[in-house]
Amino acid sequence: MRRERLRVVGVEAVGPYTLLRVGRGGLDPGAPGQFFMLEAPGRLLPRPMSLCLAPPGELGFLVDPIGPGTRALCALGPGEELAVLGPLGNGFRLDVQRPLLVGGGIGVAPFPYLSEVLRRPPALLGFRTPAHAEAAALVANAEVVLEPEYVTQRLEPGRDVLACGPEPMLEAVRALAPAAQLAWEAPMACGYGACYGCAVELGGTWKRLCVEGPVLRAA
Ligand SMILES: Cc1cc2nc3c(=O)[nH]c(=O)nc-3n(C[C@H](O)[C@H](O)[C@H](O)COP(=O)(O)OP(=O)(O)OC[C@H]3O[C@@H](n4cnc5c(N)ncnc54)[C@H](O)[C@@H]3O)c2cc1C
Ligand code: FES
Asked: With CB atoms counted within 10 Å of each terminal CB, which end of the chain scores lower, N or C?
């Protein structure tokens, strides 16, 4: 992991989300499911973002503007700089036989990169509205599920599920697929294990989601 100031090379709207592309500098893209801490100029704390795309020389992040930190990232323009720290966290295990990517909303963010690395497995992606579902175009072999239907209604047995999305979706996947790999979220202040802001209690021990996660075995 290292921290660098990187330059924005592209900003694109993807439905209500923003695809922020930055020059990679000397940063390693890491493994799918790992994340970076992105700090927009003038903001006190950086924000965790999954790596979405890793074309040569670039890092791409899909950002949902839900609050001040994410809105500041979405407001950046080409040529502006931001501080980026990473790659962080554990990422998905890639030794899977019959992968199925299962995502909901902005939880699809790590899947474009994951899909390329796993050679384009099928993906089941759930969204609230057709506008949000525009993000599915970033993921190969994606089947879109719109509310009121849920992705868990279409889960096939016998698949190695890799999932990322809102907590109720992850809990529903966990109940159906105990061997699934689930990427969780928690508010994160440091991103590298120092502050314990992201700690969750699991089986009587505390795990820092930024170090032992964000990907955890469902069981
Ligand atoms: C490992 C990891 C990877 C992530 N990847 C992405 C990504 O690729 N794209 C993306 O858009 N977002 C991602 N997020 C979520 C993103 O970091 C938060 O939405 C962001 O930090 C919110 O900051 P803010 O200042 O905009 O909003 P805030 O003002 O901090 O929060 C706005 C609202 O969202 C809630 N909230 C904030 N952070 C979280 C969180 N992590 N989990 C649940 N609720 C939260 C707050 O309680 C508040 O209600 C990721 C989070 C983690 C932990
Ligand atoms: S965010 Fe600081 S320990 Fe995880």
From this structure: C
